[in-house]
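Subject: for your reference before the review

Hello V.,

The reviewers asked for a structural picture of the protein, and I figured it would be easier to keep everything in one thread rather than splitting it across files. Below is the amino acid sequence we used in the manuscript, unchanged from the supplementary table.
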Amino acid sequence: MHVAQLSLHNFRSYPALEIDIGPGSTAFIGANGQGKTNIVEAIDYLATLSSHRVSGDAPLVTHGADQAVVRASVIRDTRTALLEVEITPGKSNRARINRSPLPRARDLLGVLSTVLFSPEDIALVKGDPSDRRRFLDVLLTLRSPRLGGTRADYDRVLKQRNALLKTSGRRSASVSGSALATLDIWDEHLARVGGELMAARLQLIHDLTPYLGAAYVNVAAGAATGRQNAVATYKPSFEIGDDHGADALSAEMLAQVGRRRPDEIDRGLSLVGPHRDDVTLTLGDLPAKGYASHGESWSFALALRLASFELLRAEGDDPVLILDDVFAELDRGRRDQLAALVGSAEQVLVTAAVAEDVPAALVGARFRVGEGGVIRE
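And here is what came back from the structure prediction:
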């Protein structure tokens, strides 16, 4: 799988841009702030319908414009698909495949697959649980697009339930019978969808584990003895049993929601569910967060992305691998080592401030980015 052509209209710094790309390695070279990351961000957005840099869509639209359009020609095996998404802040985005409108933008998920690594990924190790939850959910959706709908359903139910909890808590200390009956219904919805989401996350962690261990050994060659064993463990917001099926997890979550209801009404928010889960990352016997050095944290974050790439590759086509300004953080030996690990990918897109940061093994097509334009060298 690879992107053959990219067209942008009012996306970030580009009122208009059209470039042809091919398989193999492609580097976008330019000083910071010139727009090279905007290009790979657009490609990743077509795959995930989200940005790795911002939580909302408004910053993606050129200042003064009402809408942005990202369009790409994607080649998978011998078939070509034209993907398009219209980004309209404050409204539902619209998507098309081969010019045909899709019922929902999320129906675009699964056509293009990407794995993107950027300096912001250090938050996977050092950041909040929300960063690690997002990592899991994006990978889940790339792996099984229908889970994008599951996540959307969970967010919708959670929002409705939180609104009811806030209203109930403000009315009085004793909640009316009708409010409790309504809350019972939302509890069941939350537990049903939450159990499905948790089951998918637990399975993902299980399947990712062998790839993660191997990836960390490769990217952290020379690490201290006893600190080469990288492990990710799912940490639910409540105790679960040995049965990690969706039905069992839903039942356990519903029981826990019932026990925590007084606290939830008092605080006006849902305290149980996958929106409060975390992923514990460990190196050897110690948690990476708080104990790992900067270099170890960087290696762990990179290993998570490389493990994602290998998992997706093992289950289907090569995803497009995007390395956004990562080589500046590495010495020459680590750059060459990373290049050797990813060089077999069908398409690798690299951004760098200076050409010398791109390892020789990834020297292929090159674009110079600057002064609002993109020129192929």
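For the response letter, the relevant points are probably these. The domain at 126-311 is CATH 1.20.1050.90 (Glutathione S-transferase Yfyf (Class Pi); Chain A, domain 2). The mean pLDDT is 91.

Happy to draft the paragraph if you're swamped.

O.
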